[in-house]
Amino acid sequence: MRRVVLLLATISLAVLLVSGLALAQPAPDEVPDAACPTNGQTPNQVAFLRNSAIVAQTFTAQHTGLLTSAQVPIENTENETTSIVMEINTVDSSGTPTEVVLASTIIPASEVPPHPQSGVVTGHFSPGAPVEAGQEYALALHTTTEPQANGLGWLGFRSDGTLCPGVAYRNSGFGVFLPFAINLDLFFSTFVTPDTTPPKVISTVPKANANEVAPTANVRATFSEEMDSNTINDTTFQLFEKGTTNQIDATVSYNANTDTAKLDPTNNLSKGVAYKAVVTTWAKDVAGNRLDQDSSTSGLQQMRWFFRVDD
Ligand SMILES: [Ca+2]
Ligand SMILES: [Ca+2]
């Protein structure tokens, strides 16, 4: 990633000589993530920013966490004084940007390089867009007022589209993103604050110490955040008769929409019997952090709770 930073610095060097704008430093816990480097190409003003259209560049996140800032080089050729809206959007299964916005920020007109200069602008997202390593997203820009048609450009280069991963798109107000007619690569750089917070169970069914549970009940654990579904199974989510090591035969599944694991016992539970449910510390969030049910105690603690089936 050092190369990316250097390349961005190279772009800005050319433009900084004229603009005097400093390349903003990422926050201390941010790490460089996706980027479109120049690869020695001369940047051109290839995509014009509009209020009536959105320009977007897709990219693949390299880290799991919150995308907390992004930088793009902008050139102001017509003395434009508009603010710029910078957004992180989802993409659909074909890799095309959607209008679903994960995070949005406004870069004030005072931070847009003045005519006739270029500079790197930085958008800071709070709290940031949740991104997952290996997943595609789109960095989308539009202005808050309508500039002249060629007034404000996102710098990049025309190419065969292979110089950078991702594709540049334009949405001209019909709610649909279409790739540019010619292949463009738009320069950008994103920064992610990686997720280092362990997940925990925040609610259960049955509740802890419930004592009138139906024999047909399923057991559910809802997590504080999205989990790696590969780590939710009958070795990480277990049910025992209380006081024994007899694991109850069950099917375990995970619903990413609700961050909830379900344990469905193969046979009805026994009337009048107490059970212990356990979620082990090998359940992991999507960033790979292992479960820690008690953050105030050192080391990792599993989640366990008891309930009793009705007589
Ligand atoms: Ca986490
Ligand atoms: Ca702990």
Description:
- The chain has 311 residues and is mostly beta strands.
- The protein has two domains: 2-194, Jelly Rolls (Sandwich); 201-309, Immunoglobulin-like, CATH 2.60.40.1220.
- It is 6% helix and 44% strand.
- The chain has one helix at residues 2-19, and strands at 31-36, 44-48, 54-60, 65-76, 84-91, 97-107, 118-131, 136-143, 152-158, 168-171, 178-179, 184-186, 188-194, 201-205, 210-213, 219-223, 237-241, 250-255, 260-265, 274-279, 303-309.
- Strands 1, 2, 4, 7, 9, 12 and 13 form a seven-stranded antiparallel sheet that branches. A six-stranded antiparallel sheet has the order 6-5-8-3-10-11, with no helix packed on it.
- The protein is elongated and about 80 Å long.
- Mean pLDDT is 89; it is low at 1-23.
- The site of one calcium ion has 7 residues, from loops.
- One calcium ion binds next to loops.
Structural key phrases:
311 residues; Jelly Rolls; 2 domains; seven-stranded antiparallel sheet; six-stranded antiparallel sheet; elongated; disordered N terminus; binds calcium ion
Q: Can you tell me the CATH topology of the largest domain?
A: Jelly Rolls
User: Total strand count, please?
Assistant: 21
Number of domains: 2
Number of helices: 1
SSE class = mainly beta
Low-confidence stretches: 1-23
Largest sheet: 7 strands, antiparallel
Structure summarized in a few sentences:
It is built from 1 helix and 21 strands.
List the helices and strands and how they pair.
Elements: H1 2-19, E1 31-36, E2 44-48, E3 54-60, E4 65-76, E5 84-91, E6 97-107, E7 118-131, E8 136-143, E9 152-158, E10 168-171, E11 178-179, E12 184-186, E13 188-194, E14 201-205, E15 210-213, E16 219-223, E17 237-241, E18 250-255, E19 260-265, E20 274-279, E21 303-309
Parallel strand pairs: 15-21
Antiparallel strand pairs: 1-13, 2-9, 3-8, 3-10, 4-7, 4-9, 4-13, 5-6, 5-8, 9-12, 10-11, 14-16, 16-19, 17-20, 18-19, 20-21
Bound molecules: calcium ion (CA) (2 copies).
